[in-house]
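Dear H.,

Thanks for agreeing to be a second pair of eyes. The structure we're designing against is below in token form, covering all 57 positions.
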């Protein structure tokens, strides 16, 4: 169980940080709005789930 959580959180946190930095340069994106946070969390959650199900070789 701990391994699954670790596999989820690592890509989730990396995606959230890098996407936040990258998208902050886009002038019309409102980072602090509810819609902006939902977009960032949804992309990060999808990437976290892919970290669980996709195997690294």
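And this is the sequence the design step returned. I haven't edited it by hand at all.
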């Amino acid at each position: 169980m701990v391994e699954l959580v670790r596999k989820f959180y690592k890509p989730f946190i990396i995606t959230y940080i890098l996407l936040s930095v990258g998208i902050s340069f886009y002038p019309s994106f409102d980072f602090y709005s509810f819609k902006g946070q939902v977009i960032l969390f949804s992309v990060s959650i999808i990437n976290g789930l892919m970290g669980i199900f996709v195997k690294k070789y």
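Two observations from my side: Residues 2-53 form one domain. The two ends are 21 Å apart (CA to CA).

Warmly,
E.
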